Amino acid sequence: MINIVLFGKPGAGKGTQAEFLKGKYNLTHLSTGDIFRYNIKNDTELGQLAKTFMDKGDLVPDEVTIQMLQSEVDKNPHSAGFLFDGFPRTIAQAEALDKFLASKGQNITATVALEADDEILVQRLLERGKTSGRPDDQDEEKIRNRYQEYNEKTAPLMHYYEAQGKFHAVNGIGSVEEVTERLSKVIDNL
pLDDT tens digits, the chain, 190 residues: what are they? Predict the structure, then answer.
C-alpha cells in the first residue's frame, strides 16, 4: 500500500497532478475540500458540525476534519493506497493522521511538495480566476494571504516529514507532462 501526501501552494498544480497520480498508481484521492463540500451538501452529521464553524468564519477543528478523513478511508477498505490532498496542514493534523493510519497497520509512504515561485503562481491564479469564477482566484491580495497562511502553517510540515525521511520536493514549473514525469520518478523510486 502506498499513501502519499501532496503539498503545494494554491495554483501549484495539485489538482491536475492528483488526477494523474490516482490513475497511474490506483490511489484513492482524498481532497479535504471535496470531502467538506460533499458532507455539507449531503447534510451529514459531520457536515452539519463543520458548517457550524464555517458559518461563524472559524476554521473547522482538527477533530472534525480527521473524523471526515477517517470515514473516507474506512469507505475504501480495498484501496491500493491514498492520496491526501489538502491534509494535513499542521503538525497536529500530521500526528493525528499518523496515529490513525498506524491503527490500520499503515503509514504515510511519502510526502511530495510541488514547489514554484510565488510570483509565477500569483499570475497562474489570476489567469485561472478569469475562467474559474472563484473569487479567491481573482484578488491578488487574497492570493498572497493564502500563501502567507501556507508558509506559516503548512511549510513546517516539511521539517516534520524530512525528519522521517519522507519529504520530496518536486519542481512544479513546466508543462503538465514535465511535472508529471518528475513526480513519477519520485514515486517510482519509493
Answer: 999 999 988 889 998 999 999 999 999 999 988 898 899 899 999 899 988 988 887 778 888 889 999 999 999 999 999 999 989 988 999 999 999 999 999 999 999 999 999 999 999 999 988 988 877 788 898 888 888 888 888 778 999 999 999 999 999 999 999 999 999 999 999 9
Residues contacting 161, CB < 8 A, separation 6+: 5, 94, 108, 111, 167
Cell numbers describing residue 174: 513546466
Query: Which DSSP string do the residues of 111-129 spell out, in sequence order?
Result: EEEEE--HHHHHHHHHHHH
Residues 6+ apart with CB under 8 A from 121: 9, 10, 11, 12, 143, 147
Q: If DSSP codes are grouped into helix, strand and coil, which group holds residue 29?
A: strand
Q: Within 13 Å of residue 57, how many CA atoms lie on the same side as its CB?
A: 0
Q: What are phi and psi of 119, to 5 degrees?
A: -65, -40
Nearest to 4 by CA among 23, 24, 28, 20: 28
Q: Which residues are catalytic?
A: 14, 89, 128, 134, 146
CB-based contact 139:85 (threshold 8 Å):
no
